[in-house]
Amino acid sequence: MSAKPQQSALIGQGNQLKLASGACSNSGKKSLNEDAFSFKQPTRSTNSTKGTVAVIADGVSYASEAAKASRYCVNEFTAEYFQCPHTWSTQHAISQVLAKINNRLSDKNNQTEKTTSRGESFISTTTQRSSTGSQWLSTLSGVIFKSATAHIFHVGDTNICRIRDNKLTHLTQKHNRKLGNHTSVLTRVIGADKHLKVDYQQITIRPGDQFVLTTDGVHEYIDEHTLVELCGSNDSVEKISQRIVRQAQQNASQDDQTCLLVRIDEMPTLKPEEIRQEFADKVIPPPLQDGQILDGFKVIRSLHASSRSHLYLVKEILTERFYMLKAPSLNFENDEVYLQGFIREAWVGAQVKHPAIMRIYPPKTDSKFLYHVCEYIKGHTLRQWMHDHPHPSCGQVRQILEQIANALRIFKRLQIIHRDLKPENLMIDLNGQVKLIDYGTASVAALAENMNNINEDYPLGTVNYIAPETLINLSSSYQSDLFSLGVIAYEMLTGRFPYPTKTSVRYHVNNKSRSIQKWHYRSALDFRNDLPFWLDLALRKAVESDPEIRYQAYSEFITDISTPNEQAEIEYAHRPLIEREPVKFWQTVSILLALLLIISLIF
């Protein structure tokens, strides 16, 4: 780990979906190949709203214009989809484009299809029929890769499967029905009917995923084990797709053989709604014991356990790398606010890439459990450092505060408010690098716009570190985090808090105190008289109960705890005693009133 933080966080940089594609198509016993495919990765600006299209089609064999139909479906879908309004959802755009293509082909077809007694249209795939007109009929299956989601759509008997961690998952089902031993019928096809039913689903993608799109001349002749083995090669996707088609040929396939292979090489950070979908059906794992294995992660030891969460040191068996695994406590399995915070933490930890911010990685396998895989930080919490250094020098404290401020500046730049800044949520690694952790209570501008946040009717954070405005009216800003930073600085230097403990979450919730006037600062010099006066002034301003008077920038605070602010000293000296020392003022007034009362009683 680097002890020197970078100057900027890597967010929105290199955060694009990167795919690799390869395809191979070969005609079977017919001279004309009736399969078609397309892969279109648009410009960067369009990609953010439209994604990348991979589509495959197989013209119905008996139809006179099967080859034209398959090419028409593929080409028109790709062209029409990218012309859809940007405000349309992906599913709506797919539905509208397919409906338009289907209507056009249906209009071309002037022959009535066979109908069962139930009125269901069937297209024979093995028999020839005479026709008085041209027939434009085709299957169609495709994937639109957008952000961290794959949108799957499907009509007919072409096939889409995903290979992840050497496991194959079928993403489509054949729309056909067997009649006897050698005859099958398609129950859905483009162009056969004015009403088209399309299968649609969306799934979350991960780096390393491979999507294999094939026509029946391939997937009917290659078993799943062989397909997984072929896709496990280190060759290019182009060569792998060629090898898949060649394998189908060697297995006696006489139909047209087409394979379109797409591999996810790099993907953007999950959007909030995608994280919500990813975690929707997951359950909280029970407390883990040393040696237990969860999704390929072996528990080395428990690092921390509380009523809110469990933290373990784990080793990934496959790579032998160490991580921290964080799981919610079973106490919160029905707590919507807490679980939303856990999802929010995953998003923040994956979004921000900076040495001062702990990284969070998504699980690498399909898991039914809810947990985070976090960067392993060798070191200790700031709380432990404070136990080990009960009387630190100003220089030691200043060095740590500067790093915390750097991390908070990164958050501010990204419109993130931590809201639970405390010594327990700050780690110091072996190189002295301070890292900010635990983002479950963070307020994120992007999430406020994209997620249906559950209302919080209780101040989030930890007693004695929460800013007054958060306690009083649940509002928070960057000045709220700065207040917490000031409290930490005060506590590091004195071992105390700048305000009486009654001004805490519990006090304000139970007593409904609504005024910042009840917050009276206690000078750090009362507990440590070797501190310079100008440093106490900086601490006082950092923890001002009124956020308007508080520092407006982290850099101002760091500057004022490093060098005397003469202007601040002058302004403080000219403030009335009731503002400078309200407690001492009223104590003095009380003493004077008591003396006056005694004098009046005597005389």
Automatic annotation (TrEMBL):
Pfam families: Pkinase, PP2C_2. Residues 108-117 have a biased composition (Basic and acidic residues). The keyword Cell membrane does not apply. The chain crosses the membrane at residues 585-602. This is Bifunctional protein-serine/threonine kinase/phosphatase. The keyword Transmembrane applies. GO terms for molecular function: ATP binding; protein serine/threonine kinase activity. Keywords: ATP-binding, Kinase, Membrane, Nucleotide-binding, Serine/threonine-protein kinase, Transferase, Transmembrane, Transmembrane helix. Residues 20-264 form the PPM-type phosphatase domain. Gene3D superfamilies: PPM-type phosphatase domain (3.60.40.10), Transferase(Phosphotransferase) domain 1 (1.10.510.10). Residues 108-127 are annotated as: Disordered. Residues 297-577 form the Protein kinase domain. InterPro entries: Kinase-like_dom_sf, PPM-type-like_dom_sf, PPM-type_phosphatase-like_dom, Prot_kinase_dom, Ser/Thr_kinase_AS.
